[in-house]
Amino acid sequence: MKNGAIQMVDLFAQYLKIKNEIDTAIQNVVNTSAFIKGHDVTLFQEEMSKFLNVNHVISCANGTDALQIALMALNLQPEDEVITPDFTFLATVEVVALLGLKPVLVDVDPQTFNISIEKIEAAITPKTKVIIPVHLFGQCAEMEAIMNLAKKYNLYVIEDAAQATGAEYRFSDGSTKKAGTIGHIGTTSFFPSKNLGCFGDGGAIFTNNSAIAERIAMIANHGMKKKYYHDEIGINSRLDTIQAAVLRVKLKYLTNFNAARNAAADFYDSHLKNSNIFITPLRAAYSTHIFHQYTLKTQNIDRNALQDFLTQKGIPTMIYYPVPVHLQAAYKKYGFNDFNYPTTNMLSNSVLSLPMHTELTESQLQYIVDSLNEFSTKTEF
After folding, report:
1. What CATH architecture does domain 254-378 belong to?
2. pLDDT tens for residues 333-358?
3. Please, are residues 82 and 132 in contact by the beta-carbon 8 Å criterion?
4. pLDDT, tens digit, 9 for 90 and up, residues 94-105
5. CATH annotation of 11-106+113-252
6. Beta strands 56-60; 203-207: pairing state
7. At what angle do helices 63-72 and 91-98 cross, to 10 degrees?
């Protein structure tokens, strides 16, 4: 590859484009030495609130903490049931188990990879209290239908929007809302590779409910409203000031960053859509897609052979996710039945994510699709 090594995510090249702003923001924090709860944290929360058009943004240490704190804020009882998709990163389910709640995994839609509405309703019992949809790979789950179910059965909805910051959901009446602002609570991660990522760990929780927001802020701060007065058991989870300063800069560019990802996805789509061995990602009519990942479904081929072929060509790929949650050793005690997850099993055995970031060049994209098509021509049907 003549134009430099292709990376799955190129954070350094992105940094170079905004280097002066980032360096100045970090230096300003160092100059004030307000490394914890500095002014940039407050400003970032305000700016994020405006970007999302949501009343409250409470920052925290990471996306996993965001999910845990959201659940802690709802006064749930041991063994209360939480419905969430099987095809997801484990953190979504992990926090449910850590809090002594019961994770109820359901299968996903084979086209969008997001949680199946039909499977949600079939899984609801008298002990169900929460639905956690995951906006996987940058596209919203079918939130209007999920909120209708929540209203019908008197359930809370916590959106896991870690992979979809900036995506928009379109309601049937034509109105739109940003991912993470539709449910009772939304959560996100600012892990460096995310569409909006900091230079370490970070996360945030969103809500329009002032009472829930107050409780979330208290739980994230050792259960304190007033310093040294602990009203309930909480945790210590905060976004440090340097990370907030970085995020303030990057938030200004997020719309452009997401547009660059869409341009790369458009290139992939146009060159791969007629393939016999690749199925390009579906873009649902009810959501924009910001392509945190560009994930193909493979068919009629040995996916591992394809991945090895691309590796030899200098093209990195990833499998998100190779082992479904229901098959993870740590979750055997819940007795999940493999028979109930045919779509998740199919996806885990067939998906392959291509390089996706804001700095992909046209020549790099061309090289990737040429290599994929080369593999395709060598495949016998």
Report:
1. Alpha-Beta Complex (3.90)
2. 999 999 999 999 999 999 999 999 99
3. yes
4. 999 999 999 999
5. 3.40.640.10
6. antiparallel
7. 40
